Amino acid sequence: MPRIRFTESNGTVHDVDVNEGLTVMEAAVTRMTPGIEGDCGGLCACATCHVYIPDAWLAKCGEAEELETSILDFAYDVQSNSRLSCQIKITQELDGLEVQMPERQY
């Protein structure tokens, strides 16, 4: 079972074991991890699941598609490593993935 490490902007860490096939957003929301809201339920229609992916993990998470890039325009403090966590499917290859959350979601 893959483990994802969520780090809040204040440094608080949450390690979450998740089933493959879920998204990073679903993992956070179902485990009540603070900092990821997922208001649209994973439809890539809001930016409340915005996270930062460390450079070492970017390639494994895949590239953002055009819709995701467009929705990120509504996110707070977008950076080159910003992603919407609803668009990252968890696979065994992502075991140990670390994501950082912005100070706020909007």
CATH architecture level-2 label: Roll
How many domain regions?
Answer: 1
Give the number of DSSP strands: 5
Shape: globular
Given helix and strand content, the structural type is alpha+beta
Any low-confidence stretches, pLDDT <50, length ≥5?
A: none
Q: What fold name stands as the CATH topology?
A: Ubiquitin-like (UB roll)
- Order of strands, main sheet, comes to 2-1-5
CATH superfamily: Beta-grasp domain
Q: Residue-averaged pLDDT, rounded? A: 96
* Number of H/I helices: 3
Order of helices and strands: EEHEHHEE
- What's the main sheet like? 3 strands, mixed
Family: Belongs to the adrenodoxin/putidaredoxin family.
Domain 2Fe-2S ferredoxin-type: 2-105
InterPro entries: 2Fe-2S_ferredoxin-like_sf, 2Fe-2S_ferredoxin-type, Adrenodoxin-like, Beta-grasp_dom_sf
Keywords: 2Fe-2S, Iron, Iron-sulfur, Metal-binding
Describe this structure as you would to a colleague:
This protein is of the alpha+beta class. The protein has one domain (3-100): Beta-grasp domain (Ubiquitin-like (UB roll), Roll), CATH 3.10.20. The protein has helices at residues 24-30, 55-61, 66-72, and strands at 3-7, 13-17, 50-52, 82-84, 98-100. A hairpin with a 5-residue loop joins strand 1 (3-7) and strand 2. The radius of gyration is 12 Å and the shape is globular. The model has no long low-confidence stretch (mean pLDDT 96).
